[in-house]
Write a structure and sequence with these properties.
- By secondary structure, the chain is of the alpha/beta class.
- The chain is about 50% helix and about 20% strand.
- The longest helix is centred in the middle third of the chain and has 21 residues, at about 85-105.
- The structure holds ligand C2E and magnesium ion (MG) (3 copies).
- One magnesium ion binds next to loops.
- It comes from Roseateles asaccharophilus.
């Protein structure tokens, strides 16, 4: 990063005077060392199939166990990693750790599809599809067991290039998912062209659906839209039994949220999975929300 800045002339001198970017440089070097020092942690959050109550997939969510700052949540370093280009190394780390986890799970007779979040920079990297394939190959993970989540805004940054990368990933057999659906700026015209398999309804709608009729209608329409386009649909932010029942009644395919399970260290999920039993909630009448 410093070398890159130096190439761009006097920039580096100007910014060195600025305490903010001095801090940025030290954060970047700490982040670089975080991989070598094994301070990154792979957390996983289960996704439940509403029809069967079973868990067939989980999302990888990275954390940084900083020696002084403690467990740092992704929103405090992912945007920075994205700005500095470090995200490519970080994504590679998450993919490889996920593949290692999937291998451990298979050894215990558990078959899990893992979703990994990609960011804008990843999508602009022409080498990404080959890199992912190589990392998964090392751990014997089939591409169909790997899902990649992309937000609408990451796609809309450079739609042409993003589409090329996504098409390549799709041809290679990876599953693709649109994350935080409903909060970005993509149009339905793009959605139609993207080779995706899944929509994830943003948690803001799901968490509000029990008390706000408009949110409930957005959730209902998104499920219908996804199914009409032949896509499966996942609800994020399932925090209550009632949300689970409503989503199941609306035909939503999968759910993810604190009611089912919080993101936990990968090893912990291995112990959790065999003990998971879907709660017996009974049915929910849609009239309680859509009266
Ligand atoms: P996301 O991909 O939309 O992930 C879902 C976020 O919602 C996670 O936050 C998760 O912990 C949280 N969540 C799950 N269930 C519930 C719930 O029931 N209630 C509430 N209130 N929240 C819930 P987290 O782990 O803090 O991650 C935040 C974001 O950071 C992710 O949003 C994703 O955009 C990004 N991120 C995390 N890991 C990675 C990564 O490895 N690579 C990249 N590029 N981004 C990542
Ligand atoms: Mg995600
Ligand atoms: Mg999401
Ligand atoms: Mg979200």
């Amino acid at each position: 990063y410093a070398a890159k800045r130096r190439q761009s002339g006097s920039m580096v001198y100007e910014s060195a005077l600025d305490a903010g970017s001095q801090e940025a440089l030290s954060l970047l070097s700490e982040l670089r060392r975080a991989i070598e020092r094994q301070e990154l942690r792979l957390f996983l959050q289960p996704k439940v199939d509403f029809k069967t109550g079973q868990v067939h997939s989980a999302e990888a969510l990275v954390r940084w166990e900083h020696p002084e700052r403690g467990l740092v949540p992704p929103m405090q370093f992912i945007p920075f990693a994205e700005q500095t280009g470090f995200i490519r190394q970080l994504t590679a780390w998450v993919i490889e750790e996920s593949a290692r986890f999937a291998q451990q799970a298979r050894a215990r007779g558990l078959s899990l599809r893992i979703s990994v979040n990609l960011s804008t920079r990843d999508l602009l990297d022409q080498e990404l599809p080959a890199k992912i394939a190589a990392l998964l190959g090392r751990h014997g993970t089939d591409p169909s067991m790997q899902c990649l989540e992309i937000t609408e805004s990451a796609i809309m940054d450079d739609p042409q290039r993003a589409l090329q990368t996504l098409e390549r990933l799709s041809e290679m057999g990876f599953k693709l998912s649109i994350d935080d659906f409903g909060t970005g700026y993509s149009s339905l015209a793009y959605l139609k062209r993207l080779p995706v398999n899944e929509l994830k309804i943003d948690r803001s709608f799901v968490m509000a659906m029990e008390r706000d009729l408009d949110d409930a209608k957005i959730v209902r329409s998104t499920i219908e839209l996804a199914h009409n386009l032949g896509l499966s649909v996942v609800a994020e932010g399932v925090e209550t039994g009632k949300a689970w029942k409503l989503l199941a009644a609306l035909g939503c395919d999968e759910g993810q949220g604190y009611f089912i399970g919080r993101p936990v260290p990968a090893a912990q999920l291995l112990d959790w999975l065999p003990r998971w039993k879907a709660p017996d909630l009974g049915d929910e009448s849609l009239d309680t929300v859509f009266a």
